[in-house]
């Protein structure tokens, strides 16, 4: 049974930073891909950043240069470092993993507001 648990969300001022972590019950390197999605109220869920099993990384244009996705082997987490946050980054952020079928975390709220 695969379980993904996000942490690190919260309230941050514009221009600030947050680091989200996704802990998995199984080896994160066993997944074909892992990713962070986000969903703002009334909007579709959006792929923010992904990392394939082999290490290939992709970002949505709006976060390029600001967000960094990485895998931490020691902690068995996939992390999303978010810098230079703005109000448009406000959303529930979801961890995603795929190994034949998709798995989703429960989400963690990120609010960027002054």
The overall strand count is 11
Q: What would you call the structural class?
A: mainly beta
Q: Distance between the terminal alpha carbons, to the nearest Å?
A: 40 Å
Mean pLDDT: 97
Low-confidence stretches: none
Shape: globular
> Fraction of residues in helices?
under 10%
Which radius of gyration do the C-alpha atoms yield?
A: 13 Å
Strand content: over 45%
- Main sheet summary: 7 strands, mixed
Order of helices and strands: EEEEEEEEEEE
Number of helices: 0
Oligomer: single chain
Describe the structure.
- The protein has 114 residues and is an all-beta fold.
- Strands 2, 4, 5, 6, 9, 10 and 11 form a seven-stranded mixed β-sheet that branches.
- The mean pLDDT is 97.
């Amino acid at each position: 049974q695969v379980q993904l648990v996000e942490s690190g969300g919260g309230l941050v001022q514009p221009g600030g930073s947050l680091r989200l972590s996704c802990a998995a019950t199984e080896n994160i390197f066993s997944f074909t891909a892992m990713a962070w999605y986000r969903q703002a109220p009334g909007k579709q869920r959006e792929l923010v950043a992904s990392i394939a099993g082999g290490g290939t990384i992709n970002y949505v244009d709006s976060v390029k240069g600001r967000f960094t996705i990485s895998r931490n082997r020691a902690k068995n987490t996939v992390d999303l470092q978010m810098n230079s946050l703005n109000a448009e980054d406000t959303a529930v952020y979801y961890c995603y993993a795929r190994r034949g079928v998709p798995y989703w975390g429960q989400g963690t709220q990120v609010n960027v507001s002054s």
